[in-house]
């Protein structure tokens, strides 16, 4: 991608990042983010171990790795809260950036998130309907339990997706954009890292590479929406709908299934032999992105 001026709204959003743009600040900022994220979660796990016993704590870790029950899935999603805190602290302490420089103006953030959520809903609902015409899903949670859990499920997914957008689009993309003019760097590098962190061969087996590529593609689309609108709102809303479909509505065994109403007849490991299945799942995501690009101001 050739160098080009930053879109005006994005340039205004990340203006505070220009006061301390040095790359040497970014590395310790990312370390601080990781320390807060991993440290707080480790501290909570240790507190649980001290209270309930280390055997139960080890058992909890093993269950979280699978996340096949509502409790473990909710705990896993809630564990992203320290990630958001870490990003906010890194931006403040290393770059003197206020929270709004990571999110965009509050009103714009929520408005764009709502618009993206509605657009995503309008695209994903018929897409799931079409999927059911050619595939047979299997029951997972009892419908009554699923409905009772739905408010907690949606809140947990909103937290998880907000934390990831805050880190990758708000902090990392913004900090790179004030140092580099090429979108290949400030949009492409965070997307590449986002994809790499979704590469989990231990859980996904042969399907891990396809999942990582899909995550990187999402990262590029989210980067584009953030740059065009000057807010992570649209990226967050689209991320929320995508993850809700994949976690709460139709989960794939081998991923987080504890909150899903239905599950696919195949596992995520099976997708390794048919990567086109993963790429096909990107169709509603790309369609939603194209609609949002035309709807939202730039």
UniProtKB/TrEMBL annotation:
It holds the Pfam family Rce1-like. InterPro entries: Rce1/LyrA-like_dom. Keywords: Hydrolase, Membrane, Transmembrane, Transmembrane helix. The chain crosses the membrane at residues 30-51, 71-91, 112-133, 145-168, 180-197, 209-227, 239-261, 273-292. Residues 148-244 form the CAAX prenyl protease 2/Lysostaphin resistance protein A-like domain. Coiled coil: none annotated. Its EC number is 3.4.-.-. It is an enzyme of class 3 (hydrolase). GO terms for molecular function: hydrolase activity. This is CPBP family intramembrane glutamic endopeptidase. It comes from Meridianimarinicoccus marinus.
């Amino acid at each position: 991608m050739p160098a080009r001026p930053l879109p005006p709204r994005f340039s205004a959003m990340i203006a505070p990042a220009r006061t301390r743009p040095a790359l040497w600040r970014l590395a310790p900022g990312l370390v601080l983010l990781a320390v807060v994220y991993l440290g707080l979660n480790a501290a909570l796990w240790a507190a649980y171990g001290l209270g309930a016993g280390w055997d139960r704590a080890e058992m909890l870790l093993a269950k979280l790795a699978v996340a096949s029950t509502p409790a473990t899935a909710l705990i896993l999603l809630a564990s992203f809260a320290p990630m958001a805190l870490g990003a906010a602290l890194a931006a403040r302490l290393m770059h003197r950036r206020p929270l709004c420089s990571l999110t965009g103006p509050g009103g714009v953030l929520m408005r764009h998130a709502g618009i993206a959520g509605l657009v995503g809903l309008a695209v994903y609902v018929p897409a799931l309907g079409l999927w059911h015409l050619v595939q047979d899903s299997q029951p997972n949670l009892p419908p009554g339990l699923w409905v009772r859990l739905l408010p907690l499920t949606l809140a947990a997914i909103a937290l998880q997706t907000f934390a990831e957008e805050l880190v990758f689009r708000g902090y990392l993309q913004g900090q790179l954009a004030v140092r580099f003019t090429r979108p290949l760097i400030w949009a492409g590098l965070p997307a590449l890292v986002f994809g790499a962190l979704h590469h989990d061969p231990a859980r996904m087996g042969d399907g891990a590479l396809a999942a990582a590529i899909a995550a990187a593609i999402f990262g590029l689309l989210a980067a584009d929406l953030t740059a065009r609108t000057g807010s992570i709102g649209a990226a967050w809303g689209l991320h929320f709908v995508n993850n809700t479909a994949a976690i709460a509505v139709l989960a794939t065994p081998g991923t987080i299934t504890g909150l899903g109403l239905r599950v696919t007849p195949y596992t995520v490991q099976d997708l390794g032999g048919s990567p086109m299945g993963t790429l096909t799942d990107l169709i509603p995501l790309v369609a939603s992105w194209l609609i949002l690009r035309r709807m939202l101001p730039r």
